[in-house]
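User: Continuing from earlier, I have the next pair ready.

Assistant: Great, send them over.

User: Here they are, in order.

Assistant: Folding the first of the pair now:
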Amino acid sequence: MDVLAATGGDEVDRIVAAWRRERPDLDVEPLTVFSRVSRLARHLDRARRGAFARHDLETWEFDVLSALRRAGEPYRLSPGVLVAQTLVTSGTMTNRIDRLETRGLVERHRSPDDRRGVLVQLTAAGRQRVDAAMSDLLDVEARVLDALPPAVRPQLAALLRTVVAQFDE
């Protein structure tokens, strides 16, 4: 019987043990955290894509629609704000807005403050789609968190916030 399996070890424990055996000169402690984060990210990505697909959305579509939804009524943002919130180039955002507009999920409107400016607004169909996808996504993610007692979830969120903060500056 596998010693790691008998003691509750996982695949990452096996990987780390192998590296410790093969390269005892290396500090492989980062693998104990980041290999698990990486594996979790892959599982979450699959689950998220599935939740969005059930609502006929791609991940990037959900990102744009949810940015507009979070903006509050009238669910309208400039393309520049959408670029900043979704971390894509302006050319990519223009293409995404075009595709979402073709699907009837967003509309472009002239900015009342700038004749050359454009605002992107969520349509009723876009709002319905993103709301349904968000509900589905939260159900999926809540099931993932069921592995943790509710009392420790805020701790985990705080620890991850600390690690991620170095990239958000």
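And the other member of the pair:
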Amino acid sequence: MLAEKQALIRQEVEEGTGAAICLEEDRSGVQTAIRLWFADLERSHSPIVTLRPTGLRRFEAKLAFGNFAADTIRQMQQASAEELQLARALVASVASSANLKIANGQTTDDWIIDNGSFTIIAEKRGIESRFDDDSVAETCRELVIPVLAAMAELYGYDPIEESAPSDQEALTEGAVKLTVVRRRERNPRNRLLCLRIHGAVCKICSLIPGKLYGDAGAIIEVHHLQPLSLSGDPRPYDPATDLIPLCPNCHRAVHTRRPVPWTPAELRSKLSSD
């Protein structure tokens, strides 16, 4: 049944990691599993996460490396201290919802990928209706995405978002124009950790969009307390202290003051003054 969820799994994992993902069925066990790896690497050269149903209400996600991943591992070992810190925080976040085991008894605070035998195993139990879309998506978010996102951080994926378009107007509706824009990196792994640390609840008005909109999705945004547009050189962000989740209304409201947005406390005081 998990094989029928491949499109859902790929979408969730690509959005969560910021990396293109390949996947395939693994029929080597009693129940069909799904293997996932980075699309720009051959499977044998990539870190691989295998998501497997176990027991009656359990899923296991196991990270391992392909047989010829030595060059990939060497590149990951060159990651900066900040990248390693974020990767460890991503893996540590799994422990809030699953049993976590890291190779050779290493801990979430000090693990390193020393060779191709490195593994991480996360098991989540007590999953009701585990093959429903919502359950599969939640399992991906809690087990697969943080682990693969940690590997993406070490490997060096950095997706880029374009800034707002320039003020130049097209001469006619629908006209095609070439615009050169400044682009600044926004790391989806920071967003992932921010929401796992703070929860998907607005830190100004306390709205929980997921409860309000239901099937329409949890509409939550991540706000940089120091705006990216005001920063000079790119710098690492600590999701615990530099980022907060906001509902779209509050996020828009804090940016009505420019160039320095309203602080959460300032905007919150405006709400309480009504």
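Worth noting for the second one:
Confidence is low (pLDDT under 50) at residues 160-172, 177-185. The chain has two domains: 2-155, 199-272.
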